[in-house]
Amino acid sequence: MNENYDASAIQVLEGLEAVRKRPGMYIGTTDVKGLHHLVWEIVDNAIDEALAGFCKHIEITINKDNSITVQDDGRGIPVGVHPKTGISTVETVYTVLHAGGKFGGGGYKVSGGLHGVGASVVNALSTFVIVTVYRDGKVYECKFENGGKTIQSLTEVGTCNKMKTGTTVTFKPDPEIFDTDIYDYDTLKVRTRELAFLNQDLRLTLTDLRMSEAKQDSFLYEGGISEYVKYLNKSKTPIHEEIIHLQGEEAGVFLEVAMQYNTGYNDSIYSFVNNINTHDGGTHEEGVKRALTRIINNYARKNNILKDKDDSLTGEDVKEGLTMIISCKHPNPQFEGQTKGRLGNSEVRKIADNVFADGFERFLMENPEEAKIIIEKTMTAARARVAAKRARELTRRKSDLDVVNFGGKLEDCKEKDPSVCEIFIVEGDSAGGSAIKGRDSMTQAILPLRGKILNVEKARLDRALSNEEIRTIITAFGTGIGQEFDLSKLRYNKIIIMTDADVDGSHIRVLLLTLFYRFFRPIVEAGHVYAAQPPLFSIKHGKTIKYVLNEEERDEYIALLNQKTPVPKYEIKRMKGLGEMDAEELNETTMDINHRILRKITVDDVVEADAAFSKLMGEEVEPRREFIVENAGYVENLDV
Ligand code: 2B7
């Protein structure tokens, strides 16, 4: 125990105790997500130092023991005594709850995670933390253990080159708090790259020291969010070369936008506030979209491309094939909504509108060639919208009865309460036939797919809507699509994709996921989509039959059998496709809620999933097959 353990320090410990008692209040969850969140709380402080203009390189290292080291080359946390606490600033930042914004000097903190409570929370949830500061040619160290108890106050421990400055923090998450203490390299990599895109010219290096051969990725983007757009459009075909990049500041709010149109029909618009993904948009996004629609209409009318008699272009028209990153830096952001994914500050709408309108109008004036290409694209989108409206009317059900006889394809369930209903989307007619026979007709609906599903990544809405399979799916789901979409009208609680465990099955699954992701994203985000897992082997011994999903499980089970004496006889059969199972087998292995194994499809990082889908389903054919086999699982997390 250190000598500073006086009355105020006791209070400090009580503060951190609160974090340990209810960690969820401070970091959301104590699962893998919470575990990774700790890293970003520390990195955020380093990013703030970069935003202040003093840090060029941040290194994140996963050490052999799964502890994390974050290192920056900023000024180093001040080493003096903090006026409010009477202990060093370092110790204050790491032991006083909410020390971040309040103690750092007004307006210092502009980045920040969802919960923004910083270093002291990480300390409270760690078995040890070591903070090293390099400043004025001296090295200082401060150590904590066992949930944030100071075991060494800030101490000068050596000297260094005067040119070397910065802060290094090592922490090890407490296994008593977290469900898992194993860091995932790829999870850290995705966010590290994202932070590099969002913070122009800042180098971020991620290193993994856990294997005999170290893994490392280093990211630095001189073009910032322009390079993010380029990355997202990598497997698309842009219709103009230059990425439009504009920025401006008003009333302390900084807004930056990068955008480029491609030949595709979907939009990929992502927005951030202080480096946090605002996946439900908000006022910054609304301002930009409003200005985009207005400026394009003004330009088209002024240049007589849009005639007096023509209707104005809509928000949907001007978004078609648009990839856009919006990055807002705000000194006092208000996040709203259930997951805090929406910016609420109302003043930002006007500011974002102004900044975007100025920059975009100038671009159109200075680049008439590009302007022409963009306006033409939006005009074509408008014509397609009118055609799609007609096609969509065909998918609209007039009553609940309509769906029962829809083309004779959907075998609906009898129950009407969506919370207990499921729909199986089944590859092939023969598997569909078995599924219809083997199902529980009260709650399980079956939709057999005849042909291949249209790739919606490469088809415009009107063509997608003329596809029979897609129309049937839209009708069956009941939610409608696009602006009419209404999640509360979803007719099934579980949408289960049932395809073979081979490459073709995988391909169909990805096509369906692409369709769901582009047309019904809220359904995916709300966790209604599942993949059925048909078994690959059956192992029969005596009267029991055991179904297993893969070679690994098969070998495990056989090893288990072999442990028994005398060695039992068993018969291993490789299961054929879904289509070759009879109704009873299919029910038992894949559909019966008591035995089946479902995989929940989740989209954890929407931006990254978008890039994955574009790459999967976009223009380039060659890499696709391999990619499907290797990465189709990217958006799928084992969950059920
Ligand atoms: C409010 C607290 C969190 N802080 C400073 C200065 C630099 C600085 C920091 C940091 C994480 C892992 C390596 C300011 C801000 C404390 O006050 S925190 N650098 N890096 C960091 O935590 N990295 C600072 C003014 C003058 N000199 C230094």
Please explain how this structure is put together.
The chain is an alpha+beta fold and 640 residues long. It has four domains: 17-219, Histidine kinase-like ATPase, C-terminal domain (Heat Shock Protein 90), CATH 3.30.565; 225-392, Ribosomal Protein S5, domain 2, CATH 3.30.230.10; 396-534 and 575-601, Rossmann fold (3-Layer(aba) Sandwich), CATH 3.40.50.670; 604-640, no CATH class. It contains 22 helices and 23 strands. Strands 5-4-3-6-2-1-7-8 form an eight-stranded mixed sheet. A five-stranded mixed sheet has the order 9-10-13-11-12, sandwiched between helices. The protein has a five-stranded mixed sheet with strand order 17-16-18-19-23, with helices on both faces. Strand 3 and strand 4 form a beta hairpin. Helix 21 (606-617) crosses helix 22 (622-631). The radius of gyration is 28 Å and the shape is flat. The chain starts with 6 loop residues before the first helix and ends in a 9-residue tail after the last helix. Residues 1-7, 99-116, 399-406 and 627-640 have low confidence and may be disordered. It binds ligand 2B7. Ligand 2B7 binds at residues 42, 45-46, 49, 70-72, 74-75, 77-78, 93, 100, 103-104, 108, 167-169. Residues 42, 45-46, 49, 70-72, 74-75, 77-78, 93, 100, 103-104, 108, 167-169 line the site of ligand 2B7.
